[in-house]
Amino acid sequence: MSDTVDIWYVLPDAIRNPDLLEGYKGLLSADETARYQRFWFDRDRHLHLVAWALVRTTLSRYAGISPEAWEFRINRYGRPEIAGPGDTPPLRFNLSHTRGLIACIVATELDVGVDVEDRRRDTQGPEIARRYFSDREVAAFEGLGAEQQQLAFFEYWTLKESIIKALGLQIASGLSRFCFNLGTDTIRARFGEPISEDPAGWQFLLREIGADHLLAASLRTASGRPLTIEVRETVPLVS
Question: How buried is residue 1: exposed, middle or buried, by Cβ count under 10 Å (0-12/13-18/19+)?
Fold first, then answer.
């Protein structure tokens, strides 16, 4: 098992070369192509296309499998997982995208989740926090100014989304069932019923990507062993 977990991200708005985009279309499965064609807006088709090109080319960095050969299934919570081909190594991945940013995290035999958010989007952050976050988080939230609250909301939100995805849960499972402490250099989490997890078995990352985006990752580590998390920018089929 590797002590390094990689997060690969791409800035989709910068990818407009027609030949490159045609190359991405050639990587998609029939189902992914059908979903691509169902999107009404060009921006959504573009995001879907680049996202799955990222997943396929990224996974092929870790196995002798061509990008177009990967097979996926969707679990009961809507999370994509590797389904084939049969000789694949025990890789796990998670994908997240928002306007202007796509990220894919890859690990070996570890539960991982990633989330990206565009901090420019309109939210009712303070109201959502007061309604759905844990009491500890709300107390910390209330001690901040209005501008700091908006930033803190996205920090809590991306972390919560990433751990929900790592745990394989739905957001409806409850955002208050885990509590993050963002007041120290090392991010820690507390878990409430019915989620039975050892906080020492989790590692988190929170990273700004440019001026407008935030990326968070959650990783269930082996026996609390610290992992090295590498964050890299890429362009599928180019770099």
Answer: exposed
- If one counts every other C-beta atom within 10 angstroms of the C-beta of residue 204, the result is 19
Domain annotation covers residue 239: no
Q: Tell me, yes or no, whether 184 lies in a domain.
A: yes
Q: Which domain holds residue 178?
A: 4-233
Token pair belonging to 190: 């507390």
Classify residue 165: in a domain, yes or no: yes
pLDDT digit string, tens, across residues 182-237? 877 788 888 776 666 776 789 999 999 999 999 999 999 866 678 899 999 999 99
d(Cα 94, Cα 110) in Å, to the nearest integer? 11
pTM score, two decimals?
0.93
Residue bearing the bigger pLDDT, 130 or 196: 130
* Segment 9-30 mean pLDDT: 97
Q: Name residue, tokens 């739905």.
A: 170
* DSSP β-ladder status, 178-181 and 202-209: unpaired
- Structurally, the chain folds into a number of domains equal to 1
> How far is residue 121 from each of residues 125, 126, 210, 236, measured CA to CA in Å?
11, 14, 15, 26
CATH of the domain at 168: 3.90.470.20
Return d(Cα 132, Cα 120) in angstroms, integer.
21
Positive or negative: CA dihedral 76, 78, 79, 85 = positive
142 located within any domain: yes
Q: What are phi and psi of 106, to 5 degrees?
A: -130, 135
DSSP E strand stretches across the chain: 4-10, 71-74, 80-84, 91-98, 101-108, 112-118, 178-181, 188-191, 202-209, 213-220, 228-233
| pLDDT bucket at 126, cuts 50 / 70 / 90 | confident
